[in-house]
Amino acid sequence: MHDVKAVVFPACAALCALAFLYKLRDVRHQRDDPALRALLVAFSCKGVSFTLSTPLVARKVDDALGVRDLGALGIHLFGGVASSAAFLTAIVYWVYPREEARRRALARLGAAAVVAVVMFSLWIAAKSGVQQRSAHYLLQNAHRPVVAAYLLLYVSAFGSGMIEIIRLCGRYGRVAGRQWLRRGLHTTAIGASACLVYCLNRALSVVMVQLGLDPLEWELLTPVANGTGIFFLVAGLTMPSWGPRVSDARRLARNFVTYQRLHPLWRALSTAIPDIALNPQSDNRLTHLLPGDINYRLYRRVIEIQDGLLALRPYTDPDVVAAAERSGHEAGLSGDRLHARVQATSLAAALRAKRDRQQPGGEPVPLRPDATGGGGYADEVAWLLKVARAYTALPSAERTTQ
């Protein structure tokens, strides 16, 4: 068990330190944000608690200061009472108007201060008559009434904070306007639930001791629950900050992939109709792989493809369209797959006709996206992707433009 805690708890302390440093960057721009200050306090307290929870560190602290079980007191005051009050304060300022949040936060902080004073008094009382340091302070002394009272007060303060966090996150997570705030609240609730499991386990140890059972037999639950809890708490409480950056990165990656997938279609059109390219000199191989401002480049690519389809209208052949529809039906295609196949086939035929300078007779069929459902830019891009996929699937002989 010591080996597990010696690995898990330092990792948790490091996670809290990273979260603290990450949020510390925001202080310069949000000096008056009480939620930010509360988060910094919470991560600091949790980091200290996890550091002291490492068996070697706790023993070193006790030996250095000459006070037995002082590390245990620090773990409980910093990691349970102070951190839960600070976490709850941050969430309260997220979900309530500022004045109401201030009132609720002060009430919670006042209650936490009272609990801390009482716990300290019980810890002092528990020291009398005991000369040896306890490796597992709560579990090894749970049979003593004063320590049992200390334990129950500790888990009540810690657990009630987690219950309130779960309640607030569940309630406001369903109606939060910002997507990443909503996700952060739900994730925070998961972390608080894991911490609540730890609190229940500690509270049950008082009963188990009275029944003659040894709570150390399932002590593995402590590092597992605490490690899981702090992971989700850190992720959830910092998610509103880093989440939008993840969305931006995903959007850039998606646009880059779309840009590359549209390249064969754009290349065929720009080769046949060079005038559609805003800056043909910049459309080299390096630009294709490193397009720079990908959002702008994708937008330009879509516009240029649309211009190319419009320019090919005089070369479209209704007979080719009809034949492509029959072929698609025979191949079992329907819906958008059929429309994209027809569009791609008609496009390839129009490119060949332009190359050979042969304009078919009859009323030309417009070579423009016609399956977007009247949607906006995103629907247009999605449709062009289907056409580009169908175009690249055509035999190479059909796609020859030169």
Short description, anyone?
This protein is an all-alpha fold. The chain contains 14 helices and no strands. The protein has helices at 2-24, 34-53, 55-65, 70-95, 98-127, 137-140, 145-173, 179-210, 221-272, 285-289, 294-311, 318-330, 335-355, 377-392.
Number of helices in the DSSP assignment:
14
Distance between the first and last residues' Cα: 73 Å
Q: How much of the sequence is in beta strands?
A: under 5%
Query: Could you estimate the helical fraction of the residues in percent?
Result: over 70%
Shape: elongated
The biggest sheet, with number of strands, parallel, antiparallel or mixed sense and barrel status, is: none
**H-E order:** HHHHHHHHHHHHHH
Low-confidence stretches: none
Kindly state the mean pLDDT as a whole number? 85
Q: Total strand count, please?
A: 0
**What is Rg?**
33 Å
Structural class: mainly alpha
Give the arrangement of secondary structure elements.
Elements (H helix, E strand, L loop, with lengths): L1 H23 L9 H20 L1 H11 L4 H26 L2 H30 L9 H4 L4 H29 L5 H32 L10 H52 L12 H5 L4 H18 L6 H13 L4 H21 L21 H16 L10
Helix pairs in contact: 1-2, 1-9, 2-4, 4-5, 4-7, 5-7, 7-8, 8-9, 9-11, 9-14, 12-13, 13-14
